[in-house]
Amino acid sequence: MTDIAADILNTIRKVIDHAGSFTALHIPVFEGNEKRYLAECVDSNFVSSIGEFVDRFEGMLAAFTGVKKAVLCVNGTAALHICLKMSGVERDDEVLMPALTFIATANAVSYCGAVPHFIDIEERTLGTDPRKLEEYLDEIAELRDGACYNKLTGRRMRAILPMHTFGHPVDMDPLMEIGRNYNLAVIEDAAESLGSYYKGMHTGGFGKLGILSFNGNKIITTGGGGAILTNDEDMAGLIKHVTTTAKVPHPWEFYHDMLGYNYRMPALNAALGCAQMEKLPEFIAKKRLLAERYAAAFADLDGVRFFTEPAFAKSNYWLNTLILDRDYAEQRDEVLKVTNSNGIMTRPAWTLMEYLPMYKDCPRMNLDIAEDLVRRIINIPSSANLITDKL
Amino acid sequence: MTDIAADILNTIRKVIDHAGSFTALHIPVFEGNEKRYLAECVDSNFVSSIGEFVDRFEGMLAAFTGVKKAVLCVNGTAALHICLKMSGVERDDEVLMPALTFIATANAVSYCGAVPHFIDIEERTLGTDPRKLEEYLDEIAELRDGACYNKLTGRRMRAILPMHTFGHPVDMDPLMEIGRNYNLAVIEDAAESLGSYYKGMHTGGFGKLGILSFNGNKIITTGGGGAILTNDEDMAGLIKHVTTTAKVPHPWEFYHDMLGYNYRMPALNAALGCAQMEKLPEFIAKKRLLAERYAAAFADLDGVRFFTEPAFAKSNYWLNTLILDRDYAEQRDEVLKVTNSNGIMTRPAWTLMEYLPMYKDCPRMNLDIAEDLVRRIINIPSSANLITDKL
Fold first, then answer.
1. Average pLDDT of A194-200?
2. In whole angstroms, what is the distance from residue B306 CA to residue B317 CA?
């Protein structure tokens, strides 16, 4: 066996040899109008729940994704919470979601008093495996009066929450069909996939609702922030209402007609978002070029492969990903140690949800593929500024 | 009867005669280091969940309030939600809170699956009346094994949530005693009272937990934001953990040991907060001077009085407040119309919680004082920049 840790370290270094003594996994790049728009926002005095930058950022997101409406939220977690609420997810319902995801996906389900139900992923996308899900539902799901129930737990299953892992689109067509056949709302967790396309359509717009995240580690950032995408304009109006405390418009009266949330993104953060959106095409181009270089550099290395976008997708390559061969899975921590101690930040995938104490008793299907892959995935530096070429 | 609407309009104008053609109720003032710190924050690249400005703003808040620890949150609503969680509020518990408050107080209780229980206010503070509350609890509360139950509903009562209305401190000493006697956590909603003191101590630090808000309409703003105050350092550590997704620190592993929330304030917003904190003493001085001028101007006007701080308090006068005499209560909407249509923004107090559809069936005591006052309260322009004197 080769010294895989040293090999990986050297191969990454070849690709990003110009970087300094420490290379983070993903940092934001502020080379546009960020400071100008922030100053404009302060000068306008509208830094809070309303302001021109909120409308502008929402318009830019809708235009970019091709989804009719974008409603800003305080972060992606809040956006997921609202999408679940809007899909009718109630206390003690179940929501199908991948075992491999960031904690926010499961937590948002918990906030509804509902129960995450973990499903397996496929190696091709690192996300929900629609074929395996279909077989599973065929076995455990039961439709009664149009509602889908889990025969094993007796609970209603209300939604599927696919997540586009590391920016790579899940196979949406068969998933949408499962949603239709089993009367399950499909909510796309596109937190990581702004700038990623499935069969030419931007992610986040396939189900009735989808979400984006603009956390500091994402392809663009607003400090903290997120958005809900929907092609349903009435739904967008309702979401705006419910995320802004459900106050009924009136020149002076404070009347709220339903349980609302304080999930608005401040205009200050939206101002940063507008500047970042102007740079998004450049970030995507650079990140795709970086991925291409990694792919070439890792092509001849034994024991590991660089994960590339599925055939049906064009990905933003949010986090570049190595997958160790099974023979080398045991060396994963050694690779992490060697790279991190040499100034190249790397990390494994998230702990699978069913290993976390608050989710260990949740229903789940056989998770063989996720169990296998999670031991072998390593994310490597992916910031757009690792490409210094003029594009 | 006099033409109270015209009289009020003219009296407000006398105090703020230098203002332009439109005077808002409360706008932020950005005359310090706001733009500089925002630019520094962008330059540092740490705009998101961690960053120097987060620590700095937390330190400034603790120093200013004299409470040991401040933990930043994404907004005051989120801060309240966490305080309730940390106080053990669970599904189907009851939380005692004033009927007169902003919707966030009640919504935060709902987010826990708990039930708001509305209590009356006193005219002296516009907040919770501890004497009336004590009499009420004497009647309806029952202690069993140290836990407090509502004899009428059978539900456990877990906490009291006083709110310092318009910045004026509630009478905390008797409230704290009620908390001790009935084993109810006291959580101070000090969203409006940064810079307000009860018997020389800053509001928000009396109970085990208190919250602040930095929404755009508050005495200082971070765009959107809030903080939790506590003198319990272990509790502060747990709150930081739970508001930042409950991730256990590790160089690369993602392990979350409990249900957490994405309630962090981004560093970008904290940067604005640091600049605003530097100006807070000036804002307080100006707002108190403005209140003094209003008090003098309204002293001789029949039919209305200017609300002044309770004897035990020093208030930030967040929102200056007129109270119409009962004979003039019917003219409230006329006053609102005349002032607003003449470029002076005014508004009534919030709709009492029990009149909102989602809270109409909640338990409540007799609310005579709140019912009476809510028809007579009018908030008038209160921004710090309405005082142009050099202080």
1. 98
2. 11
ipTM: 0.96
Q: Do the Cβ atoms of A266 and B222 come within 8 Å? A: yes
Mean pLDDT in consecutive groups of 10 residues from the start of chain B, 391 residues = 91 86 94 98 92 96 98 98 98 98 98 98 98 98 97 98 98 98 98 98 96 97 98 98 96 93 98 98 98 97 97 98 97 97 96 98 98 98 94 79
pLDDT in the model for residue A19: 64
Contact A215 B48 (CB under 8 A): yes
End-to-end Cα distance, chain B:
39
Confidence of residue A92 (pLDDT cuts 50, 70, 90): very high
Percent of chain A with pLDDT strictly greater than 90: 95
Domain ranges of chain A: 4-30+279-386, 34-276
Beta bridge partners of B188: B210
Domain B34-276 top-level CATH class: alpha beta
DSSP E strand stretches across chain A: 69-73, 94-98, 115-119, 141-144, 147-150, 156-160, 185-189, 197-198, 201-202, 209-213, 226-230, 304-306, 313-314, 320-324, 347-348, 377-380
Min Cα distance B138 → chain A (Å) is 31
Cross-chain residue pair A215–B27, CB shorter than 8 Å? no
* Confidence (pLDDT) at A2: 74
Query: Do the Cβ atoms of B216 and A46 come within 8 Å?
Result: yes
A272–B268 CB contact, under 8 Å: yes
Q: Which CATH architecture has domain B4-30+278-386?
A: Alpha-Beta Complex (3.90)
**Å from B191 to nearest chain A CA?**
14
What does CATH list as the number for A4-30+279-386? 3.90.1150.10
For an interface test with A, which of B52, B268, B344, B351 has the most A Cβ atoms less than 10 Å from its Cβ? Answer: B268
Going by their DSSP bridges, the two strands B94-98 and B115-119 should be labelled as parallel
Closest approach of A185 to chain B, Cα-based (Å): 23
